[in-house]
């Protein structure tokens, strides 16, 4: 039952990544095929874990050694895969950071409030900037690469970056810079947050690192216990010495 619950959690997490449309996860999964592939892998692992939990229970109750062996093997494969994925993320973190920077940079450069084809992606990024109280990936200067703002001489700025209370109702698109008629402005003139979203995301990860590590460790411990119990049951099945049974 415990492994079926664990599988349901992993399955639900994968589905949430695919279905989420209003967070930084949405920006990544709509921009990067690798995250979408990872979500499908999570769904597959979750479904497999639920199936293995059922087979493990069936094997333990009915003392079927092949089911217990299959259960142990699948758990071992899942655990090794999780450890390998964690190591890849750790050692490739700089490359991942560069990929994130490229994804967000392209999104900011091509941001267009009138483009309905990219509406979900752009709304997700606006949501991130509002919730984290940030602007751009490294800072507001990233928005100086936006083609629309360049054509408007930087006299407009992204509303979701605003630190002004008057822009709270306009949570997407571009807002007009007060007193900027017939002049050329820069990002330094905008009433926006100074913090880049990269710093905000890193801060969130640091603040929640203990929870993330705790959950990962808990999952690994549960899987190890399942492996130990399954192999123990497998060894003990049909181990009775029938030669010692008294003859009638």
How would you characterize the overall build of this protein?
The chain has 248 residues and is mainly α. It folds into two domains: 1-62; 76-241, Cd81 Antigen, Extracellular Domain, Chain: A (Orthogonal Bundle), CATH 1.10.1450. It contains nine helices and two strands; from the N terminus they run αααααααββαα. The protein has helices spanning 2-19, 24-31, 33-62, 65-91, 93-109, 119-132, 147-151, 197-207, 209-236, and strands spanning 156-158, 174-176. The protein has a two-stranded antiparallel sheet. The longest helix has 30 residues, at 33-62.
Helix-strand blueprint:
Elements: H1 2-19, H2 24-31, H3 33-62, H4 65-91, H5 93-109, H6 119-132, H7 147-151, E1 156-158, E2 174-176, H8 197-207, H9 209-236
Antiparallel strand pairs: 1-2
Pfam family, one: Tetraspanin
Family: Belongs to the tetraspanin (TM4SF) family.
Protein name: Tetraspanin
